Amino acid sequence: MRISSTQLSTFADCPVKWFRQYVAGEQGNFGRAASIGSLFHSIIEFRIMHGYEPTRSMLCKLKGNYDDPRDHLRRYPTAWEPALEMARHIEDPMSYIPADYELVGVEVCLDDLGVEIEPGVLCGGYFDLLARNADGTEYWIGDWKTRGKASWKKRPSTDEDFAENIQFTYYAAALTQAFPSVEKVHVTHINVLRPADGGPAVKEDGATFTRLFLESVWTDLKHGVVASMIQMVEAGEQPDPPTDTSPCWKYGRCPHLRACTARRQDIMFGVEDEADSGGGFFESFNTDKPKNIGFFGSFNGE
In Å, how far are 96, 116, 168 from 6, measured between CA atoms? Predict the structure, then answer.
């Protein structure tokens, strides 16, 4: 079993979505904004590793650690230009590393550190930029964030905000488990606003975590959310879907919403587990209309 910070975030949003995507193996959807971000990451990684800007064909042939750019270019060809424009706005990616720190790596795979939160449960993910001081007592994590206007305004800015950030605390806590000498972990969001939203523009936010705090985070994760994940995997049964599906519509129309609403109907009417046997609640109003047309579309077909 492998648990990434994305899985933790997904589980926090909706355990059903996590189960269907990461345990049952159902494919989730990604949009153009996600492809822009992934291509941006790949371009920056290429520049650091090779010293020059890649063309599309170069990026596809000399793939890095972060992601396979071919999937994103195939699905959203128009994502290339904004990603390239954002990457060009970063004149020197290495300039964000704190003074007197040495680079450990770019898109460093957390899996390779062999950190287990429980026996047989590997910590997975990537550090966009990872650096450390000379004696290895302090590490620095740099994370590229490509943002639109809405998330730009909501980005974390205080230590308290970062303490609530699942990705950073998970990665930082894993570092303390991998390296007993670590006393502090510094984290930095490097926020790049997408061109369509008024960018490129860059703002940095960060915080410093002590080993004591990160060990408490590790304990909380281990005996809390991770324990729940393991229990669901061992049982092989997904949890009941939420009664309120409005967040699923608000945040990108979750691809599992149809099955969840159908299962919720079954539960309400005492039907045995037939979650995927028919249309969901919202679709049932208008079964002759195209699928995935949205809540209001399910009434008027627009």
Answer: 24, 16, 11
